[in-house]
Amino acid sequence: MILEGKVALVTGSTSGIGLAIARALAAEGAAVMLNGFGDAGEIERLCEELGALHDSADLSDPAAIEAMIARCSAELGPPDILVNNAGIQHVSPVESFPPGKWDAIIAINLSAAFHTTRLALPAMRDKGWGRIINTASAHSLVASPNKSAYVAAKHGIAGFTKTVALEAARDGVTVNCISPGYVWTSLVENQIPDTMKARNLTREQVMNDVLLAAQPTKRFVSPEEVAALALFLCREEAASITGANLSMDGGWTAQ
Ligand code: NAD
Fold first, then answer.
1. Which protein residue has the closest C-alpha to ligand 1 atom 36?
2. Is the pLDDT of residue 195 over 90?
3. 239 C-alpha to center of ligand 1: Å?
4. Which atom of ligand 1 is nearest to the CA of 220?
């Protein structure tokens, strides 16, 4: 097991991509701290399955992030692997985009990664080894209408990734982002009703003509595919991959 003795903190890991990444890291022996919302019984079951701890920090709250990193450090050890994955979406034209939703998306999808990184990086530097993996998106490279906050946050995380990669380049710490196209998770499922309303389309039309319209493979990426790439980034063979924005988007951004 390649991650024996490593501690991994995966934000937004109670479902979707984050959960798949947490499972992949735990399967290779990492001690995992889960984070995210959900049904208490289901989260307890996940903790048992992965031998993981769960912290319920709301990542829009910097004080809660600070407490989560402190708890991880005290109970498991400082994170060797930090996966900034938590994210939310809201779909609306910019002129009617609720300011509260804008603030929440920037806080959770972008600023939270700043806070976890600034708090976790010093211990990684001390050990001379670390992996920071940010879940960005094809929307870190290209835009879609009605997703102004999400696209802004994802472009932001891509720039943040490059900056920290340069700052940590000589310290054994790599910093990368993974940019999936559409992955079939609750985040995607939940935006279907709003998109149906905004564009006056059926569910099938939204899935095939909107979501997969730009994805040449015409299939959703799986959370397990994203997790396999995250796991590769944790390997020693990935030590020279840093500051990269790795697309996994079925050819979307090749167009
Ligand atoms: P998801 O809804 O299944 O998972 C989101 C996770 O974030 C959940 O665990 C949720 O509880 C957690 N979360 C939400 N708000 C939080 C908060 N305030 N504090 C702490 N945790 C919070 O969605 P997903 O598709 O797995 O999304 C994971 C990441 O992947 C996001 O950053 C998303 O932008 C990105 N992404 C998703 C897709 C896709 O098509 N699904 C594509 C590209 C990028």
1. 137
2. no
3. 26
4. 40
Q: What is the pLDDT at residue 46?
A: 98
Interval 49-81: pLDDT, tens: 999 999 999 999 999 999 999 999 999 999 999
Give residue 126 CA to ligand 1 midpoint distance, Å: 30
Per-domain residue ranges of the chain? 7-183+221-254, 184-220
Question: What are 213's two structure tokens?
Answer: 């319209």
Closest CA to 253 of 210, 214, 211, 209: 214
- 61-65: which pairs have CB atoms within 8 A and are 24 or more residues apart? 62/111, 62/115, 65/112, 65/115, 65/116, 65/119
Specify whether 182 is catalytic.
no
DSSP label at 183?
A: B
Angle at 123 between CA 135 and CA 140, to 5 degrees: 15
Q: What spacing in Å lies between the alpha carbon of 135 and ligand 1's midpoint?
A: 9
Alpha-carbon span 154 to 150, nearest angstrom: 6
The reported pTM is 0.97
12 lines ligand 1 (CB under 6 A): yes
Query: The domain 7-183+221-254 belongs to what CATH superfamily?
Result: NAD(P)-binding Rossmann-like Domain (3.40.50.720)
Ligand 1 near 182 CB (within 6 A):
yes
